[in-house]
Q: What sequence folds into this?
């Protein structure tokens, strides 16, 4: 099924207001292309008969959407209060040092994109790091080199 047809299916759920389908439509487009390029946003807008600017404004509000290409792996470090008080910033800095890039960027080998995000809902297990959407709990800066080695394929992942 084409992206256009898939978006028409979700659009049919909201016959009175097709812009209400923008979130599932953006998810479909990101699933198709890996990120929401200007062309992808235009495709979504055309399918919903709205504007690319509207689609981009919605996409830019949510952490789940990527407006730039991402690496093979996605590392998201929560830096909200509960994680911050137990050293989330040191975790971020450790990832930056290991990956050679800043939060919001992708390592030069294209393997890992590093982001900081708002509360991931695991405040009691801070610091939370989501690695490819799987949560690691109680992450300390000292844990970071091993995580990066996993992602770079130096050691096997544990699939948790
Ligand atoms: S503050 Fe980090 S998971 Fe809630």
A:
């Amino acid at each position: 099924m084409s992206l256009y047809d898939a978006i028409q299916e979700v659009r049919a759920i909201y016959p009175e207001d097709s812009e209400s389908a923008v979130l599932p439509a953006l998810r479909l487009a990101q699933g198709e292309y890996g990120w929401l390029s200007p062309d992808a946003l235009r495709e979504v807008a055309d399918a919903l008969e709205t504007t690319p600017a509207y689609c981009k404004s919605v996409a830019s509000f949510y952490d789940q959407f990527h407006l730039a290409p991402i690496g093979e792996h996605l590392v998201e470090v929560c830096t909200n209060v509960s994680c911050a008080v137990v050293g989330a910033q040191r975790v971020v800095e450790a990832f930056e040092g290991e990956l050679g890039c800043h939060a919001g960027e992708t390592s030069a080998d294209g393997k890992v994109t590093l982001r900081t995000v708002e509360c991931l809902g695991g405040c009691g297990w801070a610091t939370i790091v989501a690695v490819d959407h799987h949560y690691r709990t109680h992450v300390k800066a000292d844990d970071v080199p091993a995580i990066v080695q996993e992602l770079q394929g130096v050691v096997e992942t544990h699939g948790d």
